[in-house]
From TrEMBL:
SUPFAM superfamilies: alpha/beta-Hydrolases. The keyword Coiled coil does not apply. GO terms for molecular function: hydrolase activity. Keywords: Hydrolase. Residues 15-213 form the Phospholipase/carboxylesterase/thioesterase domain. This is Phospholipase. Coiled coil: none annotated.
Length: 226
């Protein structure tokens, strides 16, 4: 299998110090890394020593002339999604290994934040790495191939899943399915349902994600004042 090298925008630490944490944003289908990297300044308020990365997915979007995709969604069958996630996982795994090594960090210093298809990728990869990362935040996504997780899970990082109750792209019902599957295999999972929200991230979800990641890194949220 050919591993497609990943690249994309990055934001250095707000403090100017070497990175002590690494937050990787994984975008949805039809978008690219320039979209979610816009979240970096918000997270940096609480994580001044974190560096932020947002790789472009490896494939051009196959249903429009612009955008990227981790895998095709022309076939929405659960088996096709499972195979698509698995096919894209090696490229993301290699990218994470390379970036952690470049920053002199380990998986315990890493958080993955995904949206939609990026959530599918974050969950698949994080739960199959040799060492658990610090946290996974998944917005508006789903857990691909839940039936395979008990046999394949090698890491159990804490996970926060956030989903709009009016999501017209990835139905909100997938939240409960993911929560049940993750809990059964001993993976700590928190959830947040957002009333009235469609396929998007609102202020409540953003705040919950920032708090979850900050505390997973062992830091106070909001930071303690002298």
């Amino acid at each position: 299998m050919t591993l497609h090298p990943l690249s994309g925008p990055s934001v250095p630490t707000a403090s100017g110090n070497p990175a002590r944490q690494l937050v990787v944003f994984l975008h949805g289908v039809g978008s690219d890394g320039d979209d979610l990297i816009a979240l970096a300044p918000y997270f940096a308020r609480w994580l001044p020593d974190a560096a932020f990365l947002a790789p472009h997915a490896p494939l051009p979007f196959d249903m429009a002339p612009v955008g990227r995709q981790w895998f095709s969604l022309q076939n929405l069958d659960s088996q096709a999604i499972s195979e698509g996630v698995a096919s894209a996982a090696p490229s993301l795994d290699r990218y994470l290994d390379e970036q952690l090594a470049a920053h002199g960090l380990t998986d315990g210093d890493l958080a993955l934040v995904g949206f939609s298809q990026g959530t599918m990728m974050a969950l698949h990869v994080a739960l199959r790495r040799h060492t658990p990362c610090a946290a996974v935040v998944g917005y508006s996504g789903l857990l691909a191939a839940p039936e395979r997780l008990p046999a394949e899970a090698t890491a159990r990082p804490p996970i926060l899943l956030v989903h709009g109750e009016e999501d017209e792209v990835v139905p909100h019902d997938f939240l409960a399915l993911a929560e049940k599957t993750l809990s059964v295999v001993g993976i700590p999972v928190d959830t947040l349902s957002c009333p009235g929200l469609g396929h998007s991230i609102n202020d409540d979800g953003l705040m919950a994600g920032m708090q979850f990641v900050t505390q997973a890194f062992g830091l106070a949220f909001p930071p303690e004042t002298p």
